Every structure is written in C-alpha cells, then in structure tokens.
Amino acid sequence: MDFDAELIRALQENGRASIHSLSQQLARPRSAVSERLRVMLADGTVRVVAAVDPGFLGQHVLAHVSVRTDGTVEPLAQALRGLSETVLVSAVGGAHDLVTEVRVGSMDALHDLLALIRTMPRVVDINTLIYSSVVKGFFVSEYRGDVTIDSTDTALIELLQRDGRMSFRALGDSVRLSPSAVTTRVERLIEAGVIKISAVEARGLAHRQLSMGVGLNLTADDDSVMEVLRSWRGVDFAARTLGRFDAVMTLVEPSAGALYASLERIRSLAGVAHVEAWFHLAVLKEDYARTLRPVRA
Fold it and tell me: Which of 16, 47, 270, 296 is the most exposed place for a label (fewest CB within 10 A)?
C-alpha cells in the first residue's frame, strides 16, 4: 500500500478527519500518520482547505475550456490565473495547450468570459464543455439550499479556506466563540453542503502524482459508465458534459504506466465509444477559495 496515496485519499474524503481516525482507517500508528501528514503539509505535497459549494455562491454554470495558442503558454496562463472565474489552470500536452475550469453565474456570463478569453494575446481558438452534472468531485458538496449564514460563519469559512485542519480551539479564538460553539457551526456548514473540506494534492511532472484529463464519447449505456467512474479510486473528478464529449474526467496515478493501464481500462468499458486524453504537464492554479463578503466600491 502506498502510505502517502492512501493518506491523501482519506483526507480528500474528509479533510478534518482526526489523526486517531486516520490511524484506524489506514492501520498505521498514530505517530506515523501525524508525522507524515506534518511533512506533506510543510513541503506543499498536499493542502487541506475548505471550498464553498458553487451552488451556494450562485455559480450555476461550470465549464471546462481548452485553449490552443500560437506561442509560449506562460503569458496566457498568467492572465487566466488572474481571472476570478477560474478555479483550475493547467498546461497540458495534447491537442490543446492549456485547459481551465471556470465557474460563473449564468450562460450570459459564460459567453462574456469566453469572448474575453478569445481576445487574449496568443489565443488561436478555444473549445468549451459545459458540465451538465458533476458525478464526482471532492470540492462539489451538493448544497441543499435554504441555508443562511452570518458574519461569524463567513469568518470561519475564510479561515478554513486557508487551513481546513485549523483546530476548533484556534477557530474559536479567532471568532471569539467557544470550541463547542464553533464545532456546531462548522458541522452545520458541512452537513448543509455549504462547504466541503478536502485535500488538494500537488500534481504534474515535478510532483509524485501524474494527472491526465480524459474526454469520453458514450453510447446509450452511459449510466453504467458514470457509475464506474464514480467508484474508481484513480478518478479525481468526473462530469457529464455538453459539447464535443459526453463526459470528462481526471485520472490521477503515480506513474505513466499506471495512467496507461487506467486509460486502457476506460477504453474497455461497455458504453465507451471513443476516448481522447491530454496530459497535465503543470497545474498552474488550483484555487477554490472565494470571498463571501460584499465588494466595496
């Protein structure tokens, strides 16, 4: 068993899991779990953060945008990183040069954003996939609606966006509440789907995990394919899409050989008609933190 991979996977499922529960889940000594987590957090291998559900933020349109350029990608990547609508920007190898995930409030806002991207220097063309439903995603928490938050909740969310494992005592000191009162508030936010606290792992050629995007064209038996993707441990993200693919997913594996084996497994699934893949060379932005405070003029 890859200790690091299993620990990160457990934190992706529950970013605030205690050292005791992680130790039991992984069948490892608490001292080993505590020390390995400390090292990975310190060296940037993993971050544990809270993300606010897009639905709660009014971001009802989520899309995947692939971009072709006519030169080096870094200037364009920097411009895309600076847009508040982007949560992911990655340099890729494949038919396109960059991919970005964007979240906006409406189709009109998406059209405006795409028009802006087309005007950016060195953009040759773009291709857009709209997520019709997210099947699997560590930072989509299925907001249940009808939840009101106050300024204290907002302050707690902002603290957890910086450090999802901040202790209840430290959170309480920051907002001047007891640890038990803070616990009740945080648990309410999680249970209502307002936030999800999960692990973000560094990915790309310079890191221990490699990442590949995969577009799928499906036959009529698409429900069974999506269910396989939902339960597959190597799948970080999967969504039904509108556009050139019926679904898009992200594979994360420790080696090129493992990615190849996973891709072959996908190709063999009944219901998969065609597969197209792109390799994430460098994830340049992966940031789900969003302000909940009104912008002052």
Answer: 296
The residue-averaged pLDDT of 215-227 equals 90
CA distance 99 to 120: 14
d(CA 123, CA 71) in angstroms, rounded, equals: 9
Nearest alpha carbon to residue 196 among 6, 8, 12: 12
Contact 204, 280 (CB under 8 A): yes
Q: Which domains does the chain have, with CATH numbers?
A: 3-43 (1.10.10), 61-139+202-286 (3.30.70.3460), 148-191 (1.10.10.10)
12-64 pLDDT tens trace? 889 999 999 999 999 999 999 999 999 999 988 888 999 888 888 888 999 99
Which CA distances in Å does 146 have to 60, 89, 149, 231? 16, 32, 10, 29
Contact 288, 280 (CB under 8 A): no
CB neighbourhood size of 19 (10 A): 14
Q: Can you give the pLDDT at residue 45?
A: 85
Whole-angstrom Cα distance, residue 160 to residue 91?
28
pTM for the structure as a whole: 0.84
